[in-house]
Design goal:
This protein has 838 residues and is α/β, with parallel strands linked by helices. The chain is globular. The protein is 31% helix and 24% strand. The chain starts with a strand and ends with a strand.
Length: 838
């Protein structure tokens, strides 16, 4: 806890206001106010946003302390406190650095290309019995996330675990003093974020800067690049390594994979009463087992093993705890619930910091649909907070929770205290166990919840997944997982090609290309998208009914829907004189004026739009009336994704520019112009004009194959049954699946009724099972598909990826000789959409 006077000294800021105001919370998101009187809002500037513009709103919300940049002219309320600095991000990092210096407890710093978050969370699982741990929430490892994470260190912290990620040179130098790790862990070194580094060696050296003042650095000795870089880095840290080489401190002797587990044999230095011996003697015949078989999990577990050994944990304790390692749930999942509910599933993650983050997400989701907010919360284990449930209750009050269901002996013991704080603003009930809740009269799946957003926030041992299963609307095991963070990442990638003032119109037609229009639209609206576009009016009506308020363009308005367009404040594309006259008459009938419309020009696509030679007549018609207002003029490129059509693309742009100039001369007000689609943004950004239209690019499809986009949609299912089929037998309809060797055949619950194309039959298609490809055997059925699991470690219930992360949708499209659009939009509505967010 710092006073404003102390913060001013740390940041060399000019302070106007009450210097004795105490700050306990650092706030960077104007939508995430919890404790306004105790918060300092840090007004950060980014390429697309500026926190200074939200100061007035935060003042209205009760915030009184602001860290701002001197370049901004601000109106200063008399009771507000302002700290003026040159750069607010640097000031935030300085505050966190000073806060870190207040603590002498050991701190583990983790970096690497992959595995940082998994190692951090597994160490938390493995060490929480021994220490009160403060760790980075989720994957807060950026220039902003690291200082916010370290700020959470408190008087009860006995061990800090923080991860640090970089994507540019010289970034780690800023994070090192903030984390100031005593113990360093270097996880896997790979290609992630390689684009801004000249070589893996450069990136490795940059990451090693985190450990320049550490006492110890833990890494894989077999990786010669890391090993040599550590030696040459000049770090004070003493290596403590693992690897198959005998030179490693922890030598890996054998890795034995079974169907669903891996046993690892190793040797390590001799133990003494004071911990590990420094005399070089080793103990052999040690081993432990983890319930994972993939190489990444094995590597992450070995980093954890070595860390625990360094911390003095005995091999027997390590073996016991490793056996109980659980998968890390790093993401919130959003699902449709019964009776028009929204389920936000965070069932394996419960600590105070992540609760705060999840409640912000719940607020945003509930606000859009104007739903009541319900929280199902388990005991929060190993929090280290003296007044934990008092703080929880005050947080729930600040977040406007309408209903609390507390589950667990600890939270139930605080029932009276929590109810006194919540008062009449929140109904609260408490149960000792999840089973008690499910068996109570309070829980009747079809009636207990109705039109509310329900956040499930539970420690793993409370098995909240059993609650989720009972209140989800669709139980089909086949799901389309939509990664909302990847969606936002891709939008930012396309924004990087644009000027700051260029607007983006996001296409969410066809159920947002099959990914679910409402959740995608909510996310885009939340992240500052200026326009949405749908194909038909009914799609726009759905979004309006779900609380989407930003402008929505209807690309294919039909005569029968013109009244609905006006009723729901949608904006039509006008592509012909017929639709122009029909919409003008409907607008006049409803008594509206200056209604926004978007004029489509055909520059060579020859689909919809006015021909260039019709433009003079069109302008005359528009100028003769007062009912309609031209919001934008646009056209569509027909071959922007293929270099062979570049001359034609240039021709289209030339025609469009000549047409737009006529509109610019004819009308005194500003009319937006736009022609670029996703491929056009990447390949012809010089023609971005006032706005661009982003469609398939949202989902990771790139015209440049740049490798900078992320897969958003992953189609998943599970293995229903596994059987052995002898050589000479056949599998499936029409006996098309001819077995030429003794084989292991799996059956998965997906077929052409789910959108899995029948043309993928008989080895054309393949799926991903536990990191290995399994070909389709026989004909794809309506509801089922058979796959060849021969030689693949798999069991019934294992996850199968049809397309997505690990198996590109582009690759499937090539197999089907089609395009990614068709595959995405073909996924059936009976397939449950699950939305995930870190």
């Amino acid at each position: 806890m710092f006073t404003l006077h102390k913060i001013a000294q740390i940041t060399n800021a000019k302070l106007i206001g009450n210097k004795n105001t105490e700050i306990t919370h650092l706030l960077i998101d104007s939508r995430a106010v919890s404790f306004p009187a105790e918060s300092l809002f840090v007004a950060l500037r980014t390429a697309r946003n500026d926190g200074h513009r939200y100061i007035a709103n935060l003042y209205e919300a009760g915030v009184r302390s602001f860290l701002v940049e001197t370049r901004h002219a601000l109106s200063l309320p008399s009771d507000a406190n302002f700290l003026f600095v040159e750069n607010t991000l640097e000031a935030l990092q300085q505050i966190a650095t000073a806060h870190r210096a207040e603590f002498s407890c050991p701190v583990i710093g983790i970096t690497g290309s992959n595995g940082k978050t998994i190692v951090k969370e597994w160490l938390y699982q493995l060490l929480q019995e021994d220490y009160r741990i403060t760790r980075s929430p989720r994957s807060y490892n950026s220039q902003i996330g690291v200082p916010l994470s370290v700020w959470e260190l408190n008087a009860q912290t006995e061990l800090g675990i923080f991860e640090a990620g970089i994507s540019l040179p010289n970034e780690m130098e800023k994070l090192q003093p903030i984390i100031s790790p005593t113990i360093g862990i270097f996880t896997h070194l790979g290609e992630a974020h390689q684009e801004n580094f000249s070589s893996l060696k450069e990136k490795c050296n940059e990451k090693l800067k985190l450990f320049k003042d550490s006492q110890t650095i833990i890494y894989q000795k077999d990786n010669k690049l890391i090993d040599i870089a550590v030696t040459q880095s000049g770090t004070k840290a003493k290596p403590f390594t693992w690897g198959k080489t005998s030179e490693a401190d922890v030598q890996i002797l054998e890795i034995k994979k079974k169907e669903s587990s891996t046993t690892i044999a190793y040797s390590c230095p001799q133990f003494t009463n004071n911990g590990l011996s420094s005399e070089g003697r080793k103990i052999y015949n040690l081993q432990f087992t983890i319930n994972f078989v993939d190489d990444a999990s094995i590597e992450n577990a070995l980093s954890c093993l070595t860390t625990m050994l360094f911390l003095g944990k005995s091999p027997s304790v390590i073996a016991e705890r490793m056996q109980n390692l659980e998968p890390v749930a790093m993401r919130l999942e959003v699902k449709e619930g019964l009776r028009n509910c929204l389920i936000i599933d965070d069932t394996y993650n419960s600590d105070f910091t992540s609760l705060n983050i999840a409640l912000d997400f719940l607020q945003n989701q509930a606000a859009v649909k104007k739903m009541k907010r319900t929280l199902i919360l388990s005991d929060i284990l190993q929090s280290g907070q003296a007044d934990l449930y008092k703080n929880v209750a005050e947080l729930l009050l600040q977040k406007g929770i309408d209903k609390l269901i507390g589950i667990g002996g600890e939270i139930k013991s605080e029932e009276l205290r929590i109810k006194n704080i919540l008062g009449e603003k929140c109904d609260a009930v408490f149960f000792d166990t999840t089973e008690d809740f499910l068996n109570s009269s309070f829980f009747i799946p079809d009636f207990s919840f109705s039109e509310e957003a329900v956040l499930l926030k539970g420690s793993r041992q409370f098995k909240f997944e059993t609650i989720s299963e009972k209140i989800e609307a669709i139980a089909h095991q086949t799901t389309l997982e939509v990664d909302l963070d990847a969606l936002v990442h891709n939008v930012h990638y396309f924004r990087s090609h644009l000027r700051p003032e260029t607007k983006i119109m996001s296409m969410v037609k066809a159920y947002a290309y099959g990914s679910g229009d409402v959740e995608v639209a909510r996310t885009l609206q939340h992240h500052g998208c200026e326009y949405l576009a749908v194909a038909v009016a009914d799609e726009g009506v759905t979004l309006r009914n779900e609380g989407i308020h930003i402008p929505i363009v209807v690309m294919n308005p039909e005569n029968g829907a013109l009244a609905k367009i006006i009723e729901y404040n949608l904006e039509p594309e006008i592509y012909s004189f017929r639709i122009l006259e029909a919409f003008r008459k409907e607008a006049e009938r409803q008594g509206v004026s200056n209604y926004p419309v978007h004029i489509k020009i055909d520059t060579g696509m020859h689909r919809l739009g006015f021909n260039p030679e019709q433009v003079d007549e069109l302008i005359a018609e528009l100028k003769s009336q007062q009912t309609l207002l031209v919001r934008s003029v646009f056209s569509h490129l027909s071959g922007a994704d293929e270099a062979q059509f570049d001359d034609f693309t240039e021709q289209q742009v030339s025609v469009f520019q000549s047409v737009y100039m006529k509109f610019e001369k004819a009308f005194s007000y500003k009319i937006l112009k736009h022609i670029l689609n996703s491929a056009g943004i990447e390949r012809f950004s010089k023609y971005q004009f006032d706005m661009v239209r982003l469609g398939i690019g949202h989902y990771g499809i790139s015209a440049l194959d740049s490798g900078k986009l992320e897969e958003v949609c992953t189609l998943k299912t599970t293995i229903l049954q596994i059987r052995e089929v002898a050589a000479g037998e056949t599998v499936g309809y029409s006996r098309k699946g001819k077995i030429t060797r003794n084989s292991v055949i799996g059956v998965i619950p997906i077929g052409y009724a789910d959108g899995y194309d029948r043309k993928l039959s008989n080895g054309v298609g393949k799926v991903l099972v536990n990191g290995q490809f399994a070909p389709v055997v026989g004909n794809v059925c309506m509801d089922l598909t058979m796959i060849d699991l021969t030689g693949i470690p798999a069991k019934e219930g294992d996850t199968v990826v049809l397309f997505g992360k690990g198996l590109s949708i582009t690759e499937m499209a090539k197999s089907l000789q089609t395009i990614s659009y068709e595959i995405l939009t073909s996924v059936s509505r009976r397939v449950k959409r699950v939305y995930v967010k870190e």
